[in-house]
Amino acid sequence: MTTTAEIAIPQSAEDIAPSWVQQVLQKDFPGITITDVDVKGSISEGEGFMSNIIAFDAVGTRNGTSQRYSLVAKLTDFQRPLTIMKEWPKEYHINIEKIETQFYSDAVPDLLSVAIPSTEREPTSANEKDENKAPDDSFFSPKCYFAATDPSSMMSVRVMENLKTQGFSIKANGQPLSREEMMPIVAALAQLHGLSHRLELRSGKPLPETYGWIVTRSDITSVMNIMTNQHQTFVKDFAAAFPDQTDLVASLRKLDLRAILKDDSRLKVLCHADCYANNIMIKHNGDVPADAKLVDWQTTMYAVPTYDLTILFLCNTSWDVFHNDRDAILAHYHHKLQETLGPDGDVILVPSGLQSYTLEQLKADFKADCLHGLIYRFTRATPPSPDLVQMIQEIKEWGLI
User: Fold this and answer.
1) Are 302 and 193 a contacting pair, CB within 8 Å?
2) Rounded CA gap, 68 and 57, in Å?
3) CHK kinase-like domain location, by residue (predicted)?
4) Which pLDDT tens digit goes with each residue over 343-367?
5) Is-contact 63 132, C-beta < 8 A?
6) Distance separating alpha carbons of residues 65 and 77, to the nearest angstrom
7) Where are the domains of the chain?
8) Strand (E) positions, 259-303?
9) How, if at all, do strands 301-303 and 215-216 pair?
10) Domain 167-397 has what CATH class?
11) Are 301 and 275 in contact (CB under 8 A)?
12) Residue range 25-55, pLDDT digits in tens
């Protein structure tokens, strides 16, 4: 292992031993003794080219009571993505690993410290009520017990709760998200956005001044050439897939990425900025989607709230959901956002910012920002679909293309 600070970063699954897991859990469970670790192997889902996610169970005792924890270790060897995404520089890969590490270590505790009771979840199982279990301080993302990056060894690790053992899963086979699945996802985004706004107002300074690692729109300019090439490749693929859409192809070719992605003076929040299906885990109660958590926080960004929402719609839904259910989904997001922000008389907030953000303003911003989501769709290198054609046609009717 390579030592970083006080806890080592494992180089492989073989390094996930009882003594190491005990170190990792000590902060949340003082006095814990881990006697055995059962490493179950890789459970990576989705693309899987960035990290190896290793599931393991840890068994031990605390306060004289037997304990069992279902966890995952997210191990990233920087060499892996460098062999697949060669167009992205080494420094980029190292930086995004640092971003996720600092998001879990610094931002999450601060965000949860400004949460009000109405945003707190009730225990979801008898096990969560156990006095030996640390309180769940993670709403929109999994609980993380340890996160560290070591550029010298080109390794990074995050140890988190195993969401799969709690019934969460990623949408299979790239299928589009339904209206019902979108509801808990936008609720998770609303919690993220609302808590970050509360935190910013309490601190009295913009989040990028508090967290220097947050990506801003100006940071995107450093990879603009790569994004431009991806855009051109997507347009070629789109033209080949839909030769009868010459007008749309011409419009897509004329898009000015720098103008679309330029910064503006609108109110900003902490955004996930990678709201792609592989980064969203959903839990169902029977056939009903009941909860969602966002994973993979390597590109956490300071941007307008609709940045996340347009990515979510343009990259993950069908035309039917985009066209027919958009207003209902946005209304649910707006309701959850206001619920997270709290009442006007809250001791932290004053009636300003997102508290005065109306649903009609949200809908207007969503339409205006749809090109952001479209550009993100270009970077995913996913095949153009008939649903996407219809979405682009509607965006064109709005006068944006």
Assistant:
1) no
2) 7
3) 158-343
4) 754 655 555 578 889 999 999 999 9
5) yes
6) 37
7) 2-165, 167-397
8) 269-271, 280-285, 288-294, 301-303
9) parallel
10) alpha beta
11) no
12) 999 999 999 999 999 988 765 444 567 899 9
